[in-house]
Amino acid sequence: MGMVTERLAALRERMQEKNIDIYMIPTEDFHESEYVGDYFKTRSYMSGFTGSAGTLVVTHTEAGLWTDGRYFIQAEKELKGSTIQLFKMGQPKVPKVEEYIEEKMPERGCLGFDGRVVSASMGLKLKKMLEKKKARIDASEDLVDAIWTDRPALSRKPVFLLNVKWTGKSRQDKLKELRRVMEEKKADTFILASLDDIAWLFNIRGNDVEHNPVVLSFVVVRKYECLLFVQEEALSKEVRTELGRAQVTIRPYHSVYEYVSKLPENETVLLSKKRVNYAILNSLKEGTVVLDETNPTTLKKAVKNPVELINLRKSHVKDGVAVTKFMYWLKHQVGKEEITELSAAEYLEKLRRASEGFLDLSFHTISAYQANAAMMHYSATPENNAVLKPEGLLLVDSGGQYYDGTTDITRTFVLGPIPDEWKMHFTLVAKSMLNLANARFLYGCTGLNLDILARGPLWNLGIDYRCGTGHGVGYLLNVHEGPNGFRWKHVPEREDQAVLEAGMVTTDEPGIYVENSHGIRTENELICKKSMENEYGQFMEFETITYAPIDLDGIDPAYLNEEDKRQLNQYHKLVYEKIVPYLTAEEAEWLKVYTREI
């Protein structure tokens, strides 16, 4: 950890030179993305904490790292000896980042951060809070840049076009619909910075964030012009031509700030302050009328059209075949050949790569054996790579990016004998997942209304899991997508509490995580669809589109009622029908056993 303390000392020197009392380093890039490219991993570089969420705050004498429940165990390990204090977000008596900054800020002091990586909403919140102490903000500079001498270059991977046979709607039609919304809202200009929204709007994809097929870019849409601010080396002649056909003008990536600063005074600008950075907001002229709303593209993108839904079901069959073949191999080979967490993940990736239309993984595979699975976002490395034995549990959370969609599936595999308590946990996690998947509910519900269906069986035991039950999934896009999700309480920064609309795709992934012992998660994806309509209104339901066995070796029927058994049997019947045509004779016989009625 010596390197981290040296880097913090170098940062404090720069803070001293610039008269900055507190410096804040969030996780995000210039687009408020959840996952970021290597160039943007400043928080990780400065703290040694490698999780995908967190904020580092550095004063001249102290440093703190804030992260959520998914990463508490990991952060404790990675921050050891770094002099950085861990603040467990959402826990009793733990101050929020802004509360800590307010407490530590001297009168007339200065808070520093790079305004391009902090959201406009967070920047404004901090500005208002600091007024009490007559303190100022310096958001003009990335102080880490001078310290990080071997910093990776900004990604500029080639952009590719997605055919309408995959997207179901042309970029021209999407722009037309967007301008109609702008007209309704009386907005002259729409500023869009979210990478997945931009990729969706223009039917383009890229590779600037690992496993997220997005393109580093900004968009400004006006009545008669549409500008894409992008690194021009990323665009082929074909891409330029096709975008030109949709009347899209290409401008250099970094020139967005200058362009926005020249928008007319009293312009009405539509944007989301949560998704546009502070520097962009500060570039607007005084007198600009800002309509701060969720990007209209976000809801449109979340509601998959009929073509996307047909394609998605196909991608999930392919993905289910890979996971089922992986399970067959694992069950037959564990204990006979050396299999590790990493080699298991590699074998599953090889099976996915053999699928037609496969492009990439949808996130870094979590392959976690025994106690490692208690860390929700555990990552196996050559240093901690566990060898699998014919005993205990292996949790594998994985997914693929295909031309016909994005997948996300978790299965926990029983590799041999497990204690009765683990069997009870395994069975109740499966029951919880199926409970939610089989819900029928009135239109107007959000994930907040339904989360108890998954959490209830575990809460009855006095057990909880420190994360949401499910998240929206993109279409050949980000594996985490708003505005839909399942969560028991409102978490404003998650933006996942939209009404569940027909066509939305959401994961259903309850789990049990016992530190230093075991972790169990079972995850399927659900399409929301219309059910019956009567005098009470429109009822909604879910269609499960993930097809892979739930390991019956972990199921103890004593913990299931008749309805639970019916749901499990019905699901396994669906899995068998979807997957068996793609298996060898031996695999098919085996699948019959692992999808048998209980």
What does this structure look like?
Strands 4-3-2-1-5-6 form a 6-stranded mixed beta sheet, sandwiched between helices. The protein has a 6-stranded mixed beta sheet with strand order 12-11-10-8-13-14. It has a 4-stranded antiparallel beta sheet with strand order 21-28-27-24. Helices cover 35% and strands 21% of the residues. Helix 14 crosses helix 15. 48% of the residues are buried. It contains 19 helices and 28 strands. The chain is α+β, with helices and mostly antiparallel strands and 598 residues long. The chain has 3 domains: 2-147, Creatinase/prolidase N-terminal domain (Creatine Amidinohydrolase, Chain A, domain 1, 3-Layer(aba) Sandwich); 160-301, Creatinase/prolidase N-terminal domain (Creatine Amidinohydrolase, Chain A, domain 1), CATH 3.40.350; 303-594, Creatinase/methionine aminopeptidase superfamily (Creatine Amidinohydrolase, Alpha-Beta Complex), CATH 3.90.230. It is globular.
